[in-house]
Every structure is written in structure tokens, then in C-alpha cells.
Amino acid sequence: MKKFRYKYQKLMETKGHQEKKEVEELAKVKRLRAEKETEVSELNTCWDASRQEILTGQDKALTATELVSHLRHLQSLSDNLFERETELAELEEQVELERQRLLGLRKERKIFEKLKERQWDHYRQESDRTGQASLDEIASRSRANPAPIPKQLTTLK
After folding, report:
1. pTM (whole model) above 0.70
2. Which of 87, 98, 113, 134 is 20 to 30 A from 54 (CA-CA)?
């Protein structure tokens, strides 16, 4: 019988490569998300510190110009924080999208692997059946045409 060959092997390998690339892409997006989370955290800390400075500055009787300057800085931090949080939300959506793509690719690869397993089982059964048929044919031929007993064995009796 001929050698087992899975007809979708190249397609299965391609799916495996796509899955590997998707894992790398997901890791990249997660890394970007972590960086953005750090930025947001730092901005929150800076905003809290600036706000606290304004509140403690009231005890020192800040001038109107200083107060306006602090408020503008606080507003700038708030705007920057809003932008970073928006970017973070977009990255969260991208992470989820990449995760869904990865799940889809894994399902496709597993389907091809399961199909390969089934085809291998079918091949093995056919191979066993063919081998058994050959053995049965040899056995039936040997019963139909028994080999002559050599004279040396018949004289021993």
C-alpha cells in the first residue's frame, strides 16, 4: 500500500504559521496596552499631585496669575489624560479583536489536525485490511495446494 499523505498538510501548516503570527501580534498589542496603562497611571499621579498643590497653595495665598497657571496646567493634564484613556480603550478593543482572531485560527488548525487524525485512522484500517487479505490469500493457496512432503520425512516413519 502506498505511503500515507495528508492532502491538507500544506493548508494545516499555513494555518499554524498564521496562528504563530497572530500570537506575536497579540503580544505586541498587549505590550502597547501595558505601556499605555503605565502612561495613564503616571498622568493620574501627576494630576493628583498638581491638584494637591493647588489645594495646599490656597493656604499660601496664591496670586491670581499663579492660580490660573496651575489651573491651566491641571486642565492640560486632564486633556492629556483623556486622550491616553481613549487610546487605552482603543487598545483594549484591539486586544479583544486579536484574541478573537487567534481563537478562530486555533479552531481552524484543530479542525485540520482532527481531520488528519481521522484520515490516518482510515488509512491504517485500510492498510490492515489489505494486509489481512493478502495473508488470507496466501493461507488459502497453501491449503489448496499443500506442499509435497519431502521423501526424507516419509522414510523416517
Report:
1. no
2. 87
